[in-house]
């Protein structure tokens, strides 16, 4: 079909009227053995110019790769089907894909994307809040993960697997990445632990004790279930982001407390607290991440402890375990870190070993110098 102007019949007069001042093109070409239809507006108001536009479009289609027409939305859908579907990280990556399509445009062709397009999406996401009620800005690490990392994965697969002609070297990923603040490690110091325990509610005591003695993430511990306990082997099954359900060991004392608390908790929950308000006063309710965060904030305020977050309970455990064992590999396994680089943040604890070693070296050097001087004096006589 050659170029044409779209038209329709007027319901009142019955006459044909044009729906657009521009000519449109509509043609079919065989590419890699597959017949494909291409159509759209030429943006031209004269037939001769529209025909020239159609010829240019045909040449462009013949010269392009088999999937150069792929849009970001199509690529993300295919990436989900081929790569992330069924993985434990599926939900998080789907959220990231949704943000990319929303901020960049799902109808954008991959071949037309530039560094500026992704950089603009990064800035937009960095200026958004975590939710309607939570007005905190999205963290730089989250922005990098949801925009830069997922786009890099999709474009890389499009280039190497789907044969979309993309110049990956044209994207300056390092310049787009937001600077992430170095995570600080905080633990209870001085009498902070005693003041914290004095201020914490008694019914939350077993849960807090377990967090400090095992070092699990709060949401993982709160999500424990009665049907995922292995009492004979002293192990529990928890959900770890990126890995799914994983068995982790616990001590006999920890297992005893877990079983005792599980008997008190309603449903499949393991940890629970006593409700304080009428008419449910005294009833047991499952401990949740949000509820515990509020309770912990109240206790910290009453104890006069500042700059201490809910995740610092895990830092406190890791620091004390490393101080007791001097074994980074053991701490890595206890925390279920995927890489030792995540555990290195606690290496400051080993500075005490270095300090003791330097002091021992100073003492030995001082003794050696004194002995050498004594020998020199005797030889001089």
Automatic annotation (TrEMBL):
Keywords, ordered alphabetically: DNA integration, DNA recombination
Location of region: Disordered: 38-67
The keyword NAD is assigned to this record: no
Tyr recombinase domain span: 179-359
UniProt GO MF annotations: DNA binding
Matches recorded under InterPro entries: DNA_brk_join_enz (IPR011010), Integrase-like_cat_sf (IPR013762), Integrase_catalytic (IPR002104), Tyrosine_recombinase_XerCD (IPR050090)
Pfam family, one: Phage_integrase
Compositionally skewed regions (Basic and acidic residues) per UniProt: 51-66
One GO BP annotation of this record: DNA integration
Keyword field contains Transport: no
Protein name: Tyr recombinase domain-containing protein
């Amino acid at each position: 079909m050659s170029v044409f102007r779209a038209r329709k019949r007027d319901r009142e007069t019955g006459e044909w009227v044009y729906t657009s001042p521009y000519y449109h093109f509509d043609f079919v070409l065989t590419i890699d053995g597959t017949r494909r239809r291409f159509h759209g507006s030429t943006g031209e108001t004269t037939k001769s110019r529209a025909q020239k536009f159609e010829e240019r479009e045909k040449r462009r289609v013949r010269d392009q790769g088999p999937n150069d027409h792929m849009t970001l939305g199509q690529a993300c859908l295919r990436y989900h089907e081929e790569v992330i579907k069924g993985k434990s990280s599926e939900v998080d990556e789907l959220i990231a894909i949704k943000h990319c399509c929303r901020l960049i445009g799902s109808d954008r062709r991959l071949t037309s994307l530039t560094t500026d397009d992704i950089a603009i999406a990064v800035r937009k996401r960095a200026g958004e809040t975590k939710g309607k009620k939570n007005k905190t800005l999205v963290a730089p690490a989250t922005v990098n993960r949801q925009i830069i990392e997922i786009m890099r994965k999709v474009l890389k697969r499009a280039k190497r697997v789907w044969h979309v002609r993309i110049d990956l070297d044209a994207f300056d990923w390092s310049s787009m990445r937001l600077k992430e603040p170095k995570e600080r490690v905080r633990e209870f110091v001085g009498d902070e632990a005693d003041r914290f325990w004095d201020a914490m509610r008694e019914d939350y005591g077993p849960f807090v004790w377990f967090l400090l003695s095992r070092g699990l993430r709060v949401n993982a511990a709160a999500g424990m279930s009665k049907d995922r306990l292995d009492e004979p082997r002293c192990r529990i099954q928890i959900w770890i982001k990126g890995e799914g359900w994983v068995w982790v060991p616990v001590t006999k004392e920890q297992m005893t407390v877990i079983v005792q608390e599980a008997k008190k908790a309603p449903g499949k929950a393991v940890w629970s607290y006593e409700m304080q308000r009428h008419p449910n006063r005294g009833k047991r309710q499952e401990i949740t991440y949000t509820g515990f965060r509020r309770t912990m904030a109240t206790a910290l305020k009453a104890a006069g402890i500042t700059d201490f977050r809910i995740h610092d309970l895990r830092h406190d455990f890791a620091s004390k375990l490393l101080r007791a064992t001097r074994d980074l590999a053991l701490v890595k396994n206890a925390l279920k870190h995927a890489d030792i680089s995540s555990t290195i943040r606690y290496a400051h604890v080993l500075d005490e070993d270095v300090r003791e070693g330097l002091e021992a070296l100073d003492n030995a050097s001082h003794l050696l110098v004194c002995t050498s001087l004594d020998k020199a004096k005797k030889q001089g006589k």
